[in-house]
Amino acid sequence: MGSQALQILRQGVWAALSGGWYQDPHQGVGVNALHLYLWLFLLGFPFTLYMALPSSMVIVAVYCPVIAALFIVLKMVNYRLHRALDEGEIVERNANEHMDRGAKTEQGNTSTRRTDSNGPSDPGGGIEMSEFIREATPPVGCSSRNSYAALDPNNQIGSGLSRLGTTATIKGDTDTAKTSDDISLSLGRSCSLCKEGSEEQGKFSSTLYETGGCDMSLVNFEPAARRSSNICDTDSHVSSSTSVRFYPHDLLSLPQIRLNRLLTIDTDLLEHQDIDLSPDLQDRMQSQEEAAQKVKQYYRFWILPKLWIGINFDRLTLLALFDRNREILENVLAVILAILVAFLGSVLLIEGFFKDIWVFQFCLVIASCQYSLLKSVQPDSSSPRHGHNRIIAYSRPVYFCLCCGLIWLLDYGSRNTSTTRFRLYGVVFTNPLLLLSARDLVIVFTLCFPIVFFIGLLPQVNTFVMYLCEQLDIHVFGGNATTSLLAALYSFICSIVAVALLYGFCYGALKDSWDGQHIPVLFSIFCGLLVALSYHLSRQSSDPSVLFSLVQSKIFPNSEDKNPEDPLSEVKDPLPEKLRNSVNERLQSDLIVCLVIGVLYFAIHVSTVFTVLQPVLSYILYALVGSVGFLTHYVLPQLRKQLPWHCFSHSLLKTKEYYQFEVRNAAHVMWFEKLHVWLLFVEKNVIYPLIVLNELSSSAKNIASPKKLDTEIGALMITIAGLKLLRSSFSNPTCQYVTVIFTVLFFTFDYKSFSETMLLDLFFMSILFSKLWELFYKLRFVYTYIAPWQITWGSAFHAFAQPFAVPHSAMLFVQAAISAFFSTPLNPFLGSAIFITSYVRPVKFWERDYNTKRVDHSNTRLASQLDRNPGSDDNNLNSIFYEHLTRSLQHSLCGDLLLGRWGNYSTGDCFILASDYLNALVHLIEIGNGLVTFQLRGLEFRGTYCQQREVEAITEGVEEDEGFCCCEPGHIPHMLSFNATFGQRWLAWEVLVTKYVLEGYSITDNSAASMLQVFDLRKILTTYYVKGIIYYVTTSPKLEEWLANETMQEGLQPCADCNYVDVDPTFNPNIDEDYDHHLAGVSRESFCMTYLNWIEYCCSRREKPLDADKDSSLVTLCYGLCVLGRRALGTASHHMSSNLESFLYGLHALFKGDFRISSIRDEWIFADMELLRKVVVPGIRMSLKLHQDHFTSPDEYDDPTVLYEAIVSHEQNLVIAHEGDPAWRSAVLSNSPSLLALRHVMDDGTNEYKIIMLNKRYLSFRVIKVNKECVRGLWAGQQQELVFLRNRNPERGSIQNAKQALRNMINSSCDQPIGYPIYVSPLTTSYSDSHDQLKEFLGGAISLGNIRNFIVSTWHRLRKGCGAGCNSGGNIEDSDAGGGAPCTSNSAAANESQSSMSQAGGNLITGQGPGVGLHPPVTSHPSTLGTSHSSHSVQSSLVRHSPARASVASHSSYCYSSRHSSLRTSTTGFVPCRRSSTSQISLRNLPSSIQSRLSMVNQMEPTSQTGVVIVQHGLPSSSSSSQSIPACKQHALVGFLGTEGGNNITDAQSGGNASPANHMQAKRDEVIYRIQIMDPSQVLEGINMSKRKELQWPDEVIRLKAGRNSWKDWSPQEGMEGHVIHRWVPCSRDPGSRSHIDKTILLVQIEDKYVAVVETGVLELGAEV
Fold this sequence. Notes:
- By secondary structure, the chain is of the alpha+beta class.
- Helix content is 45%, strand content 11%.
- It is built from 53 helices and 33 strands.
- Strands 11, 12, 13, 14, 17, 18, 19, 20 and 21 form a nine-stranded mixed β-sheet that branches.
- The longest helix has 33 residues, at 574-606.
């Protein structure tokens, strides 16, 4: 602890005060002396010049060139030396040689230059260790404490090589862009350790693979062609991706032992004496060791083309002297900044701004700024990252130049009396006294630079630029928060361009003539453009990357070239394309909407409504904004909270899911959510624009008057104020109503004389209120955190700091006010009650763009996958669930925020989503008009003890608390107790929602050990494994190719013998179903007895059945593959299948694809490796799922048909893959309905195997809103503690649990390595256009295509309605429903089809055939489309009809129920309307409640429509029956009758019988009509794969083809047409036609694809003819 404190004082405190200089005990005297003298020179030289020379430009003329020369020389030499170390040459020579013989040594035998192993001088030869050691010199991080090789300046590796009798010149790595954390060492053939005739050294290469016990599986070896004279042959399969292990064999000679110890990079082995070797070997190498001690080493530094000098130090020494600037531009920038610091500092000195001791202090500041360019402070107090930070070195000189320039400008302004006076609110901002005060303040701030940078009040330069642009854009131009430096600059420039475009219109209008009743038209144009442009800017994201990507995709559509060798080339992330489509839709919508609202508001403004109706209009608008804002942003959110006003014990406005234990569907849209959306829409699109235009009209001329700001400045202020107010109102109007009401009241009744017109008052008060809100949140955080009754001391320092902070409370409040003004975090020092102000940060907070990179097989080496299984820890595997949660939020977050489901929100707010196992912090960064950019940080599933305590705090309820102070008298019903109310008000968080519904995955994990504990269960798994192999080989399209492969046939020739038996010890009678006890193995005969039936059945399901006889080649192939697969399982289990742990290890190895072919009998598989990838691997994975199914239905899979269909179903509906496979991540992100994996968990000493099952469903979350200043403060405190103060204690006090502030959860969500989240998402933007529920009642994007579709659909409805109403016998009811469905008949098809209703058992049954609704009927003669006969028109007030016109190829009439029907009829929506004597029901048998309804129905029907339909010469006729009920209405009647009248209908119809033939024929000839898809979001892509089987499908084959799993790359698009072949209707009595939701679902056939779509998402085109 003492050494760490001393290190912090030396490298942190002292270095921060001096600018980087400190005494480093780990460096030599020369390095420290050079640093000291250089720092003293930079300090003393300007001070001496100022004291010795008169205050004139002579000081500048002398000082600047000297500094320029010094920095140019130092930077150039430093850069050249690093280049020499990267690309130069290491020369080894004897100690008695001189430097003048360097040229000769280059050609002699004492030194040879290494060339490329493939070069002409070395045609074959060495082994290059390019992965383990990369650079010829040690890296930055290498020292005597942490280097890999513990290298000293004498270079022990070179010495070790020289002891072996070699002299070499080793050329280093030429890539200067590589990080200095690597070392490069190449051993060429030219540095061979063998001499001619030396037997021991000649065997060097053969022992490279067998060295002293070290595991070098990270080393990549690239063997070249070797000479047989000195290098023995090795394994020809070793390549750059081969993992090689070393074993302690064949210790032949001392050179080999020495080299092996060098390769182990172990300093202890390097220093150890070889006392265990024989004396002969030691004597033999004695002479070489003595020669090696005289070898020295140096680098060649070329000064001129033929002149060089020797450098006797390496990169460590050079890096200890000066920081490295990798690029030439960095060196040039450093030199320019050093000269600028010298110039500006010397100018301020000679101008006399500093006197007495402050001159020395200013010279100290100059020296610290210049020295930081040579040797910067690492780590700096404001550095956001561990290690060396290249950007932080430029902070001091840049800030110094800014401050010096500001000092000069303020002084110049104070002395320039001709400056235009600028006065606001009684303050003259151009007052010389005010400018001089500001100048002196900046001078004091500059002199305090050492203290400022020690405390860390100023960020690094790029952070400051981003913060400055963001703050100006938000508070001046009304913009949003930004996501990066590029986004900040882009957004700021867009705002400047918008102001420049609007300024001309405003200036021209102000120059025009104004009077009390007339406003220039140009000003009205300006107002219209202002509203339109503000609306467009508010809807655009600050990040231009998606926009640039969209433009690139339009200009260069084929610019994205895929690398076919890339393993991720087949895995396509759908998110970028989705974002591009969203941006494209928004741009098209803005193009139309901006034109509309621009013209609309221009028309409103030019109508002089803002002048004639004053002041009444202003009062009305203020009252509207106050009432609507108060209702929308205060009353409704409070009523919807879990604890409204912290007084009620439950929400007063509950959602439908509030009392549901398990949510099964998407959240239902409640009436108050719709009310919230419409109020918000009216508020920000109508009320606020009218208020701004009203103030513009009344204030513009006054602002531009000479008494105020004149025309030029006035036009600028009007433009900026209008743009700011409108943009902020469009983007986030949450708190705007408070600002408006307060401003009106304050400047109307309190300080009316100080008002600068209401427009400017609103502008400045909006800025002030944003700072006041920030101060309010900071004070709440402080009060909550230091409240004495709930303080949690995490360490002894906390106990000391608590009373110490009490007398400094006034300073704390001053810091809070200052931090609120600059928007800086107020962080608790080391987590205690002492608060300090941190440096300014943007809303994004974290300066690094850190996001989690999941470890899987796509980014790890093959050797590490096979040996160590990287990423097998739970945290890495579980991170995919947070990634999927991020995608779900990207789809729905913005819409849910607009629906008010997260309460009030603003820029920078933080929320915690908590469920059973998921705990994520959501940080809202950018909030625009219809868009939200957020970042999700997922915490560990099984967190620490502290995290669990805080999770309990946010999940436990307080409704049962009955405390009142010290007693428990209870509480009022539906109210909280006094103690609970008091406690809830002293928390930095609050629970908003307890049932927030979001789509995600439910995780089920079962122990594989318990499922495979006994041998019988393992035998079942092996049996399914074999059957899975047989299934996949028989269904493979390459089966015929495999059967014809001669290599395979030759390898399988022994298996073709009917007496063949495989007696491999892998086979076990306990786990192999086909084990032959007599032959002690698996014979072909026993295999056929067990699996031949399965093979034959699988072959019968092929399109081209193959011969599956017992002696066929197919059976031989299956037998060989099954034996191979089981042998691979045994090999992976180390031939210990009887042991459970070994069996599970082998099963997991095969599941992830690690197959080891160990037997020569299985080498035939190498003829086509697709057999392993497409047959065996899927077989072992499918067997795991079948084994799970066995527990639910043990004997079900004995039937081959059931088993085959189960495999087909699982193959289509289930993704089975290893979690390290990139396909697993792709399946999760693609919303696959179900996934299965076998996980090997090695964490915290546990070693177990789990079967992970994922099912897509709707998850329920608790939404907790956290004080955003609490989050920012705790994050800033953790960064300072871990980076600058170097606290490495994992149990530090600052991360202990504090329930009132959720300290542990917030601190653990920091970026790694400061925190430890298992997932940090990239910044993700959610758009409101992607929210389906919001689009239903608010409408989607307004684009040209949507307008065209709306016009076309409206025209179709009008045409069909007119056609139904104008025909004879038409009914107005049809027109109301969108057009009738005429019941027509066709004489050409009359003899082919009949329809009837069969009633049996007291129930109405609609006939169904096996092929009902699968294909449209083929008719040779079209029916009378577009015409209707009054005798066939059947209308009912009980059943509303569809607008589609149906042409029926039958003599029966059919009625089609529309999508709006509340009473549904039949499976396909068509009910035969056949009036016969058997279908007549007397109203006397019905209840009186129904008779009145039916009488109304019959009054609407002409009597000529009733009767029996008789086909005669193709013309229909009817007979009257006034009191009969058509069969097409009987289903509707059932919905009315229920138990009351159902039996009456049943009795009345009991006598009717129908022919089965007619029954089948009727269903086959039902009307088939065409539709066009209008809304692809209504397509149910996964309904066919649901495990709950909500729908009964007409055919199982269609079900398997009607989903994303069958479509593959195809997807339904807008405008596609197809015909309806089946319908599911809500509340249908027929289970086969019953919809599981409250909407009608259509089954549509589009070409050869089947699509299930909600009826509201299609446009009906008419009947299929």
